[in-house]
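re: ur question from earlier - yeah i can do the single chain one, its not a big deal. heres the input i used so u can compare w yours
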Amino acid sequence: MTEPSSPDSRPSPTKRSRTDTNACDWKHHPELYMPDGTMLFLADNTLFRVYPGLLSKHSEVFRGMTSLSECHPPNSGTYDGCPVVRLTDDAEDLAFFLSATMGLQSFHHHQPTSFQCAAAILRLATKYMVAPLRGQAIGHFSRIIPTKFDYTRECYKKVFGDDPPHPFALVSLFRECQIPYFLPWAFYLACNQGFDKLVGGASHNDKPIHLSEADRCIALLGWKKLYDTTLHIRRSTVMSREMNCKQGACNDSLRMCWLNTAFHGVRSDAMEQWKPFGLLERYDANTVGTPLPNLPEITPCSSCVASWSILEKKGRVGVWNTLPQTFGLPNWEELRQEHARSIATT
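and the output i got, formated as tokens:
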């Protein structure tokens, strides 16, 4: 998506209305100040001159603004003969949004769109009730949201280019824009930032970032559940014994050795395969008893290797199945149905 330039051009002082006492500080947006536009938006100190008919086509909010502009009082703030509507939105975000709303740019599946641009469009399309554009933005973000346990997500770079989003930003965005279907995965990613960052915040692009107080509490409770579940999956897997287990190789010493390793460096990433289990899946049964890099010196028999792989994956799938409830959300089926209804109205 081509992104609009930053505002830098100044308005001519001769065009100011007397009612605009601060107009000397205003700037025309270089790409979104249309000479024949009939409505002005002022965000920060940047002016956008737009076509209200085009904007109101998909938005009740803009239709309301258009109606007001047609009957503005004679002494209301004007500029270039047009009423000035002051907005609280960030000027750069508004530029992304207006460009998309007026058809000057759109999402393309084959090329990335920066997170800042995509987030601005989603946020303001939700705020101003531009349903078609909101649907496009949701579709863009859905490319990084898994829909099942073994779903292959697109690389963040393909979706957002060199501007990947921080998990905390995703949680805040999906919460603000009322997309609960995306929240379980966003919370899971946030938990994997670690306990310390959940509590004290993190840094992204040299700026501090943190969750809201309410979402921090939800994430911390979820982090504890995921941490405990990770321990349980590893413990129950290692302590299980296959019926055809070769006792000579898989004795209690082996299990205690593996259990000690399993409890080292535990995190909340309960859906990720523990690296030693992944190495075991590629383990050559003919080398039983031979130490492998990054594994305990004693390795299990081939029967237990197969059994452990199945049990561990079953545990991780279970984490996915109950992920929404981990964060106090409805189950996956309820979230899918609600999301489908939401999309159907866009």
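The chain is about 45% helix and 10% strand. not sure if urs matches, ping me
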